[in-house]
Design a protein that fits this description.
The complex is a heterodimer of chains A (233) and B (187).
Chain A: H1 2-25, E1 36-45, E2 53-64, E3 67-74, E4 86-92, E5 95-102, E6 107-114, E7 118-119, H2 128-134, E8 140-143, E9 151-153, E10 161-171, H3 174-182, E11 194-204, E12 209-217, E13 220-232
Chain B: H1 3-16, H2 18-36, E1 43-46, E2 60-69, E3 72-82, E4 91-101, E5 108-113, E6 128-130, E7 134-137, E8 140-152, E9 155-160, E10 163-167, E11 172-176
Antiparallel strand pairs in B: 1-2, 2-3, 3-6, 3-7, 4-5, 4-8, 8-9, 8-10, 10-11
Classes of the chains: A alpha+beta (233), B alpha+beta (187).
């Protein structure tokens, strides 16, 4: 009898550990997001003139995966796109429409295409993105507080925020080093053997939506994404 | 007489006849003159590598090699390399490469290549090329866009890179951000 109880306890312990690990690293991803409007800012190298550090800001109006509008509020200095440039994507069946609004001419141009996949405004603009990130072997998921800059509208309760941290080590690579030089990452020391890229992602643990992201190369901040306003519709 | 036989006979005659050897020398001179009369290449160059940032900082780079001569840009290769990324694409491809000319300041589209094959390199792939050698006017540019694909429980998705621009007139590179995919070529 004691043996059976011991086996039972062992089995429950294993199940408990497994459940804890799963709940730490895997979150039930919502299949669809509610409609929202987001204003976000990206600071990083290659956004300023000639590859230097700079800032850009966007507004994303997300009705659903098949209908969204992305507007450039503040373009990176490194690019020639104008503030107020807007792209609207609408998918109906297999037909996709992408409508570009040019603030200079105040005119819209429409591109039509066909396909089964859905176009994203950004790689992170899908519910499964966070799951992919935290599914990486090096990822650690931690609890964290609400990012200080984010302004929330339309939330019935304060979201639960989590932070995913992961890093990647790769050997020195000439092309990548050239790219770093072009980005004028002046505080980066010469590559000796390896570079370590570390990423920290803060996300809404219910929506699985990224609200802040920091990327470091050998502990030098190279990219920072911050949601300034998030309004549920 | 078959053409091969004629050629053999001709070569034999060249070897045997001093007079014909003189003709041979003259012919060689003419050929040399023809070559020398061609535009002399001023310089060969490669545009600065464009590697716009992304969340994983490693989604794609492009560059163009060309030479300048007689007011033209002789494009030899359009280079690209890409990668899947952290939490990102399952596969990637070059969506297109386009040649442009600016005869009077405004862009005139010349030619498009692509899309390339889907690839799954998880860090930068080696450089690949797309398109063919072309002679353009000096004030010309080549642009590139990458396309990425993934699917998960929430759907089947794609997105595109910033547009990479390379200008031959002043050997510079630039990027345009905030652009969705264009010139769709299927998912």
């Amino acid at each position: 009898m004691k043996k059976i109880i011991a086996i039972f306890i062992c089995m429950m312990t294993v199940l408990g550990v497994t459940a804890t690990a799963t709940s730490t690293n895997r979150i039930n991803t919502p299949i669809v997001w509610p409609s929202f409007e987001m204003t976000y800012r990206i600071e990083g190298y290659y956004r300023g003139l000639n590859g230097s550090f700079g800032t850009q800001r966007y507004k994303l109006v997300y009705k659903n995966a098949e209908h969204w509008t992305s507007e450039v509020l503040e373009p990176a200095q490194s690019t020639i796109i104008l503030p107020g440039t807007r792209f609207t994507y609408i998918k109906n069946g297999r037909t996709e429409q992408t409508i570009k609004f040019d603030p200079l001419t105040q005119k819209e141009t429409i591109a039509i295409s066909y396909g089964d996949a859905v176009q994203l405004s950004n790689e992170w603009a899908r519910p499964g993105y966070i799951d992919n990130l935290i599914g990486r072997t090096s990822a650690r998921v931690l609890s964290t507080s609400k990012p200080s800059e984010i302004s929330l509208i339309g939330f019935s309760s304060i979201p639960i925020y989590r932070k995913a941290v992961f890093s990647e080590q790769s050997p020195c690579d000439e092309d990548r080093e050239n790219a770093y030089i072009q980005r004028k990452i002046v505080s980066l020391k010469p590559c000796l053997d390896n570079r370590v890229e570390r990423h920290e992602v803060i996300f809404d643990g219910v929506l699985n939506l990224m609200v802040e992201y920091s990327s470091y190369v050998d502990d030098v901040l190279v990219e920072h994404f911050i949601v300034e306003k998030l309004a549920l519709q | 007489m078959k053409s091969v036989d004629f050629l053999k006979t001709f070569v034999t005659m060249l070897g045997q006849s001093a007079k014909l050897r003189g003709i041979q020398t003259i012919a060689a001179s003419v050929v040399s003159l023809v070559f020398l009369s061609q535009p002399i290449s001023i310089f060969a160059a490669t545009t600065p590598e464009a590697c716009p940032p992304s969340f994983s900082s490693k989604y794609g780079c492009t560059k163009v090699t060309y030479s300048s001569s007689s007011g033209n840009a002789n494009i030899t290769d359009r280079w690209f390399k890409g990668s899947t990324g952290s939490g990102g694409a399952v596969k990637w491809r070059i969506n297109w490469a386009k040649d442009w000319e600016f005869p009077s300041g405004s862009a005139v589209f010349k030619e498009i290549w692509g899309p390339g094959s889907w690839r799954t390199d998880s860090i930068y792939s080696p450089y690949f090329t797309i398109g063919s050698a072309r002679t353009r006017i000096a004030n010309s540019a080549v642009t590139f866009q990458f396309r990425y694909h993934t699917n998960d429980a929430s759907g089947n998705f794609y997105w595109c890179s910033w547009i990479h621009q390379h200008y031959m007139i002043n050997n510079t590179s630039n990027v345009i951000d905030g652009m969705p995919c264009s010139d769709f070529t299927g998912s």
